[in-house]
Write a structure and sequence with these properties.
- Chain B: One of its GO terms (cellular component) is plasma membrane.
- Chain B: It is a multi-pass membrane protein.
- Chain B: It is found in: Cell membrane.
- Chain B: This is Amino acid/amide ABC transporter membrane protein 1 (HAAT family).
- The complex is a heterotrimer.
- Chain A has a single domain, classed as ABC transporter involved in vitamin B12 uptake, BtuC (Orthogonal Bundle), CATH 1.10.3470.
- Chain A is built from 13 helices and four strands.
- By secondary structure, chain A is an all-alpha fold.
- Helices cover about 70% and strands about 5% of the residues of chain A.
- In chain A, helix 2 crosses helix 11 and helix 6 packs across helix 7.
- The radius of gyration of chain B is 20 Å and the shape is globular.
- Chain B starts with a helix and ends in a 10-residue tail after the last helix.
- By secondary structure, chain B is mostly helical.
- By secondary structure, chain C is α/β, with parallel strands linked by helices.
- Chain C has two domains: about 160 residues, P-loop containing nucleotide triphosphate hydrolases (Rossmann fold, 3-Layer(aba) Sandwich); about 80 residues, no CATH class.
- Helix content of chain C is about 40%, strand content about 25%.
- The chains are: A mainly alpha, B mainly alpha, C alpha/beta.
- At the A-B interface, helix 5, helix 10 and helix 12 of A face helix 4, helix 9 and helix 11 of B.
């Protein structure tokens, strides 16, 4: 077993052991922190597909996170106020049922990712970064001006949404649900990386000319990756909104796009468990440094600088060294 | 809808456009010469505004405040260039984005630490306060008019600098070929620091000038930074001329669509939904503009490279 | 049989005032190696770009198997049967030799839209990739990362990836570039046998290789084909001697 596999196993074990311990010690806040870490890891796992495998430096992934959040917020808002979402041409009611909320989050994220990708992928490099950033800002301002759904103040949802067979109000049950989704996504990512698509996408990042020369369209590969990536981050947004029972335009903010990217880099770009390592570290830093000083972002900034300048592989790289070849 | 209102709004659009240009010019220069995408440019804008507010608070002099803004931003720019940025010139864009994002975190929280979370206020100097009457009887704030003047003056100065001076020749050469310029015996690392500090000073100047009509607070730089990105994407990255045209386009679009679109929509629908739909669409107008330009020309209006 | 596999008809391309391709008509017939030679800056890369689809000609058309492909993108042309190699190796350096070859097999078989099964576990892709690697002599290095290959091995892999496509025509941009005498000789021998499988349009600076391999040679100078003919015809053509051989000798 490689060191990276051991490290990943240890991370996963920690994600099971720490909340289990928290249940026994009756520490619900620790479970909330762990849930936050798992959901952020999911958001970053989404970006990791576009960024890590496809090399797409998207500085607008908060768009999908926000879409997921508003999918939850809008559906639950109509359900809790007993007002229909729309009456014409046919009646659509709100819902508190998570699978339906997720479906909406996923579908809208996919459409948004497709359109943004179609536009942004016409360009490369710095243009791509700035354009994704600009589209993020567009959604942000749209959410602020969307007074029907709280405008700048956002919306509070009073009771967490339902999932069949679970009591989502019990922290550990909601945590388990989030962790299960993260694990499914990581398994999917692991398969994806070794699949023909993953191989082609990885090559499209390194040598687009080669990919074209063997009969594949790098832009289509990247577009599909961008959509998959957006969908996963969108799902994370719906869960995040349910964790906080609150959505607001800040979910769309460019700072949040930056933070998702930090999670990926901190953990190790392109590494399967990089987003997990990054999110756990981020939440731990936020909790412990944030407890010492309210200016903990200064230290986050310094750590990030250190990673960029001196530790390109992130935490996974530091612990497990360079990535082994497949097979 | 009166002509006076239209002229007023066009002037407002111009004013925000030329201020955007000060930001965008530095960004595009830094990208063109060093190939660096600098997210921390908004922090330099903020540094300029805080320096100006602090100095004006102590001395009461607006001129000294502006000098302080220029000096503080240029100094901050030079310091981060030497300490961090120059390690990034050969890195990929991802590293540049992350490192400069880290700088934003450090600058923003550092400023909050020193100045607190409450906004500071920078007053318009007495000599420039109050309205002025323009031909046609239009009353317009003198200070805003002065901003347009300063912006155009700086744009002209920048044009002179780049087209007519030795440093300008070096900058233009640096855009085309780094090795060439090193071979010519120019100290490239000094040139880079200089260009970076120049860009920083322009951002700081914009921060101070705009700070007098808005509040000076942490986080003020980033919305402007993103607008400046839109500007240079529209204008073409690396092109000063593109930045100028792009800035005016964005400034005018942003201002005019926000004011007039709800009015236009009211012709077709009820007042309340028209206002709400109008302001929603208006908030997205410049991004729609950017998308249209990109569909038409993926590397911007005056951009050479994609 | 004079049927042509690949042909350009009067393609023209200008960059500003510079005519990089001026009314170029060349063709590639079954079983032949057609070499394009010319001094630096003659427009060879521009020509290849237009044939393979990375550049659009201002005028003229490109035909593959009698079909107009001028409007097709690079990847469409590859699927239509154009197998190219790059002057500077364009390989996924982080990936293994086998993965690079599988990439070619995937493109050729249209299996790039599979998200779950492992690429290396796909028997048909693997067989195809391994066969190509064996032919160029890289069977021993399949699990090596591309970045760890020698320059010569990269040139071999470059050819192997094109082989996995089982193309109708090869377009090879200086396959000998940077190879030593030994490597050049080996590759020359290999290309010699390859022409039976599919004809090769060969852009090459190595004159020994060109004279050893080419059935026909076209000489490109300042964006124009000044002569096309057999090795002997080209050797003795006074215009060629003046414009090209005279300079390079």
């Amino acid at each position: 077993m490689s060191r990276e596999t051991l490290f990943n196993a240890a991370l996963l074990l920690g994600l099971i052991a720490v909340p289990a311990w928290a249940v026994m010690m009756d520490e619900p806040f620790t479970i909330t922190l762990a849930t936050r870490a798992v959901i952020l890891a999911l958001a970053a796992a989404g970006l990791n597909i576009a960024l890590g495998i496809g090399g797409l430096v998207s500085l607008g992934h908060a768009v999908f996170f926000g879409i997921g959040g508003y999918a939850m917020g809008i559906l639950a808002h109509h359900a809790q106020s007993y007002t229909p979402l729309m009456e014409w041409p046919f009646l659509i009611e709100g819902t508190k049922f998570m699978p339906v909320i997720w479906l909406l989050a996923v579908v809208v994220s996919a459409v948004a990712a497709f359109l943004i990708g179609l536009m942004s992928l016409r360009t490369t490099g710095a243009y791509f970064i700035m354009i994704t950033l600009a589209f993020g800002q567009m959604f942000y301002y749209f959410a602020i001006s969307w007074s029907t759904y709280g405008g700048e103040d956002g919306m509070s949802i009073y009771i967490r949404n339902d999932f069949p067979g679970l009591n989502t109000l019990v922290p550990i049950q909601f945590y388990g649900l989030c962790l299960a989704i993260l694990v499914v996504v990581l398994i999917f990512t692991a398969r994806l990386r070794r699949s023909p698509f993953g191989l082609a996408l990885n090559a499209a990042r390194q040598v687009p000319a080669r990919v074209e020369a063997v009969g594949m369209d790098p832009m289509r590969l990247k577009l599909v990756a961008f959509v998959i990536s957006g969908v996963i981050t969108g799902l994370a947004g719906a869960l995040f909104a349910d964790l906080n029972r609150f959505v607001s335009p800040t979910m769309f903010s460019w700072q949040f796009s930056g933070e998702i990217m930090i999670l990926v880099i901190l953990g190790g770009v392109g590494r399967l468990f990089g987003p997990v390592a990054g999110a756990v570290t981020f939440v731990a830093l936020e909790h412990f440094l944030g407890g010492i000083t309210e200016f903990w972002h200064i230290f986050l900034g310094l750590i990030l600088l250190a990673v960029v300048l001196f530790a390109r592989g992130g935490i996974t790289g530091l612990v497990a060294g360079k990535e082994a070849t497949h097979d | 809808m009166s002509t006076i209102l239209i002229i007023e709004q066009v002037l407002n659009g111009l004013q925000s456009g030329v201020m955007l240009f000060l930001m965008a010019a530095g960004l595009t220069l830094i990208f063109g010469v060093m190939g660096l995408i600098n997210l921390a440019h908004g922090s330099l804008y903020m540094v300029g505004a805080f320096a100006a507010a602090a100095v004006a608070g102590v001395t009461g002099s607006f001129v000294l405040a502006l000098v302080a803004a220029l000096a503080a931003a240029a100094l901050a720019g030079a310091v981060i260039e030497v300490a961090v940025i120059r390690r990034l010139y050969d890195s990929d864009h991802l590293d540049q984005v992350l490192a400069t994002f880290a700088l934003i975190l450090i600058f923003s929280e550092g400023t909050r630490w020193v100045f607190g979370s409450f906004p500071l206020f920078l007053d318009i100097p007495d000599a420039l306060s109050g309205p002025v009457t323009l031909p046609g009887g239009i009353q317009y704030p003198l200070y805003r008019l002065a901003l347009i003047g300063v912006g155009l003056l700086v744009a002209f100065g920048l044009w002179l600098l780049i087209e007519r001076t030795r440093i300008g020749i070096q900058i233009r050469a640096g855009e085309n070929d780094r090795e060439m310029i090193a071979a010519l015996g120019v100290d490239i690392s000094k040139l880079y620091t200089l260009v970076f500090a120049l860009g920083a000073a322009l951002a700081g100047l914009a921060g101070a000038l705009v700070g007098a009509i808005q509040s000076v607070q942490v986080g003020m730089g980033e919305p402007v930074l993103i607008l400046a990105f839109v500007v240079i994407v529209i204008g073409g990255i690396g092109s000063i001329k593109g930045a100028f045209i792009g800035a005016l386009l964005v400034g005018l679009t942003d201002t005019l669509v926000g004011i007039f679109l709800p009015e236009v929509l009211k012709l077709f629908m009820d007042a309340a939904p028209a206002t709400s739909a109008g302001s929603s669409i208006a908030s997205m107008s410049i991004y729609i503009l950017m998308s249209l330009v990109l569909i038409w020309r993926p590397s911007g209006l005056f951009g050479a490279r994609a | 049989m004079t049927e042509t596999i690949l042909a350009t008809h009067g393609i023209t391309k200008s960059f500003g005032a510079l005519k990089a391709s001026n009314d170029i008509s060349i063709d590639l017939r079954p079983g032949e190696i057609h070499a394009i030679i010319g001094p630096n800056g003659a427009g060879k890369s521009t020509l290849i770009g237009q044939i393979c689809g990375s550049l659009a000609p201002d005028a003229g058309r490109v035909e593959l198997m009698g079909q107009d492909v001028t409007g097709l993108s690079t990847d469409q042309r590859a699927r239509a049967g154009l197998g190219r190699t790059f002057q500077i190796s364009a390989l996924a350096m982080e990936d293994t030799v086998l993965e690079n070859a599988i990439l070619g097999a995937m493109g050729a078989s249209g299996r790039s839209w599979r998200f779950w099964s492992a690429a290396l576990g796909d028997r048909s892709l693997r067989t195809r990739a391994e066969a190509a690697l064996e032919r160029v002599g890289l069977a021993e290095s399949m699990t090596k990362r591309c970045a760890d290959l020698s320059h010569g091995q990269r040139r071999q892999l470059e050819v192997a990836v094109a082989l996995t496509l089982a193309p109708k025509a090869f377009v090879m941009d200086e396959p000998m570039a940077g190879l030593g005498a030994e490597g050049s000789k080996n590759l020359t021998g290999f290309l010699d046998s390859l022409r039976q499988e599919a004809p090769i349009l060969l852009v090459e600076h190595d004159m020994d290789a060109v004279f050893a391999l080419a059935d026909r040679i076209s000489v490109l100078v300042y964006g124009e084909v000044i002569a096309t003919g057999s090795v002997d015809q080209i050797r003795s053509d006074p215009r060629v001697r003046e414009a090209y051989l005279g300079e390079s000798a």
